[in-house]
Amino acid sequence: MHSQWLLWGGLAACCAAGLAGLARGRWLQSQTLKKSVLLSIGVHAILAVVAAFVGVARPASWGSADEGRMTMQVVPIDEAGDDPAVEQADAAPLADTIGEPLSAAEAQAEPAPPDDAPPDLVPLLPVVATATDALAEAEATDAPQPPAPRDAEQAAREAAAAAVPLLYADRVGGRRAAAAAARGGSLDTEQAVQGALGWLAAAQAADGRWSAVQHGGGVERTVQGHDRHGVGAKSDHGVTGLALLAFLGAGHTHREGPHADVVARGLRFLVERQRADGSLAGDAEFFAALYCHGMATLAVGEACALTGDAALRPALDRAVRHTLAMQHPATGGWRYAAGDRGDTSQLGWQVMVLATARQAGLAAGLEPAEGRARVFLQSVSSGRAGGLAAYRLGERPSVAMTAEALVCRLLLGLSVHDPAVKEALDSLAGAPPDAAHPNAYTWYYATLASFHAGGAQWEAWNARLLAALLPLQRRGPGPLAGSWDPDPVWGGHGGRVYSTALSAMTLEVYYRHAPIHERQQAAHGGNQFASQTPGIRLQ
Questions:
Q1: C-alpha–C-alpha distance, residues 504 and 189, integer Å
Q2: Three-state SS at 516
Q3: What's the CATH number of domain 169-523, 2.130.10.10, 1.50.10.20, 3.40.50.170, 3.30.50.10?
Q4: Which among 11, 55, 216, 253 is placed 20 to 30 Å from 63, CA to CA?
Q5: Cα–Cα distances in Å, from 511 out to 124, 190, 263, 379, 462?
């Protein structure tokens, strides 16, 4: 009998040595789980054979020498199939253990299988776990160490970039240069943008504002025969909003980029001076107030959408509610005061406020306001396809208002394949940018309209734009290097900050927003679709 124990002991020692060799070797380094399961099955098979031989050798018991006949006692059970004696004996111990945690020894001896473990592998999990632990311990000294964790700041930047709404995603990181190269930009356009941002950063006041009057604003030029009494001299909030939009358009926020401090101080200036009614117009005169509010609100909204900064949301929410309150409830337009019937020039800034609010996660009241804005656009439209637009109802259409109206129509969901879009683009093609007659306002809106409509016309427009706009930028050393002189149309009101910020934003068009024609094609599988669709809600 001792020889049998020596035989089985030797066999067990051989098996253990074999398992240890496999664990310390390289056989388990690939497909570890599968091979561990196979080993477990093999071990259990060997144990089953050993148990069978032992059972044959000692069938009655382990270590006892009972002799004589074996007896069996039959216990009757009731009709329900329960054993009253067993139930009474087991009830108390079971009741005492309900809700009791396992002891440390019990928990270690009998771990619970994971919820998602396959039923057929549950009996093997302890063996697999043991083999896996042994393998991990054996490989600890040989396996290559995992890479060091990424810099926390870099990880935070990557997380922030991933959270940027798709509409603004091309502004971030290396995507900016790629988008510029793919959509008509160049090294010259990027150098012009950087020069403009450099001048704007130097022109910022200590309290975070950009002063309109300090840089040539508030000069009356009697544009289109109207004396506006030097409006613009107190438009600091408006030109500050435009300057911030130029920085944000190139991916600089109050949290990211070499101009982060510039942007932070500008945003702080706007938010801390917000009026009780939500207006961000500051001290702007009556005729400039809603323009300034719209430009400043766009800046706060884009900063909030780009960074997800919750600290900006209360100010943005109040500002958007002010925009909604200023819209005429019947005509759908905006002008100077609540109740004014509206004009197309004001409409463009406020429709962009609505679109930006969506990107920042606001929704209340936006859809009805968008519907009313469509009503206003219809009222100022003309032309065979309705693609031309006037400043106000009953007036003649103009290139500037046609461009601004087209931007609004596209933001509000008009298909780029609608005949009205082609009619508007044909009107713009007849008045391309000309360096002899600079007009930052018209060029900005016409470039936006052409870019978002896409197609061959965009390449033609872009070529004319660059030929006219780039040479007008101040070059060389000096305090004005990187800026654009105030243009002879509206530049007198906003000054050099206005002209420089709008020109920079025009040259950022390649990556400021994802093109609407691309978004429409992606959203509808490349098919042409209905001419009037709900406003774009790309998040």
A1: 9
A2: helix
A3: 1.50.10.20
A4: 11
A5: 57, 11, 19, 32, 14
